[in-house]
Write a structure and sequence with these properties.
Layout (H helix, E strand, L loop, with lengths): L17 E6 L11 H9 L4 E7 L5 H13 L4 E6 L2 H14 L7 E5 L1 H5 L6 H20 L3 E2 L2 E4 L3 E5 L3 H12 L3 E5 L14 E2 L4 E2 H13 L4 E4 L2 E9 L2 E8 L8 E6 L1 E4 L3 E3 L15 E3 H10 L8 E2 L2 E2 L2 E8 L24 H15 L4 E6 L10 H9 L3 E4 L7 E4 L7 E7 L5 E7 L1 E6 L1 E3 L3 H7 L26 E3 L9 H18 L4 E4 L4 E3 L9 H5 L6 E8 L2 E8 L9 H4 L6 E3 L4 H12 L17 E2 L9
Parallel strand pairs: 1-2, 1-3, 3-4, 5-34, 7-8, 7-15, 8-11, 15-28, 17-26, 20-21, 20-26, 21-22
Antiparallel strand pairs: 6-29, 9-10, 12-13, 13-14, 16-27, 18-19, 23-24, 24-25, 30-33, 31-32
Bound molecules: flavin-adenine dinucleotide.
Length: about 625
């Protein structure tokens, strides 16, 4: 144990005593970095009282080392230099808590991804870099305030927006977990797009039966309130305490707006079908060119008779299906959408939906000639490839066109068939083919619905493909950047029914976990305003992306009324955009203050860890704790 030699003091007047723990991470770190040298270098820091290295800091004995030092050696700040904080930051915070220390008096330094893994060929350099990163961590933790989670009261109720299969599945799952649900559907009936489908792949159930079954569960549940012909027109508040205004236009004027208090909101507004541009493969110019959803509807209404397949009152003896219409578009080949960009994403469901439809044509009208024109076939689901194999065996002819040369259609005047599709087939030697057809079916992709008014209510995050965007596709797949607002189904991107319902179950579980207790605990890393420094200029407000997180208000200060920034800690995400534009340095993000950043930069560029002597570095020790936020809106 080293004696600290510093003027940095705790609020109690005790010296700040930092424990530094350098992890080998098996050999992930120590095969490249000299961990003993890092620990020895940090021991020279004036605020470091203990500095050790160990094989696995995250193991029980590793955590016990820290806990023992906190108790026996009066360590009051901890730095762990190890793998990624996403893996073990919480593990170590809990260890501090078990030892009786505020869990935020802790800094995690990633010397695996940021040093050993990226500098494998330079052991000395990686070790030098690790020393500087850990020294920066020590400088930061020395200036760390005690923090406490933000506590928010909870409404055990969820608003689900959209009554397709995803919205209905989410509603049933939420109600089954004991939560109240308001299901808001814009249309006059529940079911969404699936209600329009005949048999659905891969189960071959009727879309209508599937929807009916879910509708029965929704309508039969005492905890679910269904609001048809309704939309969300107001979305105030924050996770745990949203105030949602639902407008039912068909209601009497005084009853149109209904306020629902909810702890979470699930968005399940689904998708729209891509509408081909005028002239795209002949669309809009010839009645012989239709979209896949329109063809499916026509097929459903077409009786199996000796007259054969009839579409819009015309015989269809030869049908060409063209894949990827409105999906996987290429700049320069396809016309851009309204936002100036092409739809370069894959709509995922249309390949299987097309082959599934081809199989229906083949089984009901075996005399019809079927041609399948694709650039690729992506039947990605379990068992979906069977539709391709079966269609091929039953006589469908498959041609593969080059990405940059989509097939064209020319209507004939007075010929035997309605027209000719011209394509080049790269499955052979690039042969150019002219296919006589009565009908061209365009496998149109999925595009996001126009829910701009809903998005604008909370600046919901939208991806480059214009679908709603999750925080992380693997780690937080149904959460948006706005805490408590979750996603389910095809509003997030192309999905089949199975995937949409799985996403809905995930969102329901996420909401149920959030609302399981009377209060939610949020991380305290939010903006904090120093009222004495704030000059009320409002630049921070202009930068804040999170509706309601920051406002300007008149407050009483030293007997006078002054205007300054006020943060709602339940709505702030701690992005720091406000702090970055505040010239008087009146705003700081708790746990990431500007003073901490300055000190870290100084440590990184310092020549020698031992030279990092401090004077009065913790003169203004604070204890940041927010009251439980439980007020309504
Ligand atoms: C041609 C085609 C064929 C397909 N065939 C199959 C198949 O055979 N098998 C399969 O697994 N998948 C198939 N799919 C995919 C399937 O359609 C989707 O997976 C499914 O519809 C997604 O359900 P959802 O609830 O997310 O969205 P949707 O079905 O689009 O439902 C969304 C609901 O939200 C409502 N809504 C929209 N905006 C608002 C708003 N602002 N406020 C309130 N309510 C709103 C809508 O009215 C709608 O009821 C097919 C897709 C296409 C394009």
């Amino acid at each position: 144990m080293t004696e600290t030699n510093t003027s940095a003091l705790e609020p109690s007047g005790d010296p700040v005593r930092v424990g530094v723990y350098v992890c080998h991470c098996g050999g992930n770190i120590s095969d490249v970095i000299d961990t003993k040298a890092v620990a020895a270098a940090l021991a020279a820091h004036p605020n470091v009282a203990v500095s050790n290295d160990y094989m696995f800091m995250c193991s029980d004995p590793g955590q016990a080392l820290i806990i023992d030092d906190i108790k026996a050696n009066h360590i009051n700040r901890v730095v762990v230099a190890a793998c990624s904080p996403t893996l073990h930051e919480i593990t170590f915070r809990k260890a501090l808590q078990r030892a009786g220390l505020n869990p935020y008096l802790f800094e995690y330094v990633n010397i695996r991804e940021q040093a050993s893994w990226v500098h494998k060929g330079d052991h000395e350099g990686a070790t030098r870099k690790a020393v500087r990163l850990v020294a920066a961590g020590v400088e930061k933790v020395v200036r760390q305030d005690e923090l406490f989670p933000i506590k928010v009261g909870v409404e055990p109720h969820v608003v689900v927006v959209g009554g397709g299969v995803a919205g209905m599945s989410a509603a049933v799952a939420l109600a089954g977990r004991g939560l109240g649900v308001t299901l808001v559907e814009k249309g006059v009936a529940l079911g969404g797009r699936v209600a329009d489908l005949d048999r659905v792949y891969p189960t071959e159930e009727r879309g209508a039966d599937l929807v009916q079954d879910l509708t029965r569960q929704v309508e039969g549940h005492s905890r679910i309130d269904v609001r048809l012909g309704s939309e969300v027109v107001g979305l105030d508040g924050h996770v745990g305490k949203f105030a949602v205004t639902v407008r039912t236009s068909s209601a009497a004027p005084d009853d149109q707006d209904h306020l629902v208090r909810a702890g979470a909101v699930v968005i399940a507004t689904g998708f729209d079908h891509y509408k081909p541009a005028q002239g795209e493969h002949g669309f809009g110019e010839s009645p012989a060119v239709v979209t896949l959803p329109d063809f499916q509807a026509a097929l459903r209404q077409c009786p199996a008779s000796r007259r054969g397949l009839q579409v819009n009152g015309r015989p269809a003896r030869s049908v060409a299906f063209i894949h990827c219409v409105g999906s996987r578009q290429i700049d320069g080949v396809h016309a851009p959408q309204a936002d100036g960009k092409v739809n370069d994403y894959c709509s995922r469901t249309c390949c299987t939906a097309t082959l599934h439809t081809i199989r229906q044509v083949q089984s009901r009208f075996p005399d019809v000639d079927v041609y399948d024109l694709h650039k690729d076939i992506r039947t990605y689901g379990r068992g979906h490839e069977a539709y391709y194999e079966d269609a091929s065996r039953a006589g469908a002819l498959f041609f593969r066109f080059p990405d940059e040369e989509p097939p064209t259609f020319a209507a004939s005047t007075g010929g035997e068939y309605a027209g000719t599709v011209t394509t080049r087939d790269i499955l052979t030697w690039g042969e150019e083919l002219e296919i006589p057809v009565d009908l061209v079916v365009l496998a149109t992709g999925m595009v996001p619905r126009d829910i701009a008014s809903l998005i604008d209510l909370r600046k919901l995050p939208v991806g480059a493909d214009r679908f709603l965007q999750e925080v992380h596709p693997k780690l937080r797949p149904v959460e948006t950047g706005v805490a408590g607002i979750l996603l389910a189904g095809a509003c997030q991107g192309p999905m089949d029914i199975n995937e949409a319902c799985t996403a809905a179950q995930t969102a329901a579980v996420k909401a149920a976990i959030l609302l399981a207790n009377p209060t939610i605990e949020l991380d305290p890393f939010v903006a904090v305003v120093d009222g004495e420094r704030c000059d009320g200029c409002g630049k921070c407000l202009a930068e804040c992306e999170y509706v309601g997180a920051l406002t300007m208000a008149d407050v009483e200060q030293a007997g006078a009324t002054v205007r300054h920034a006020v943060v709602n800690p339940a709505m702030c995400v701690g992005c720091g955009a406000c702090a970055a534009v505040c010239s008087p340095r009146a705003i700081n993000v708790a746990g990431w203050t500007l003073d901490q950043f300055d000190a870290m930069v100084d440590a990184i560029i310092a020549e020698d860890v031992g030279a990092l002597a401090h004077t009065e570095c913790r003169a203004g020790v604070r204890h940041i704790e927010f009251a439980v936020i439980s007020g309504g809106n």
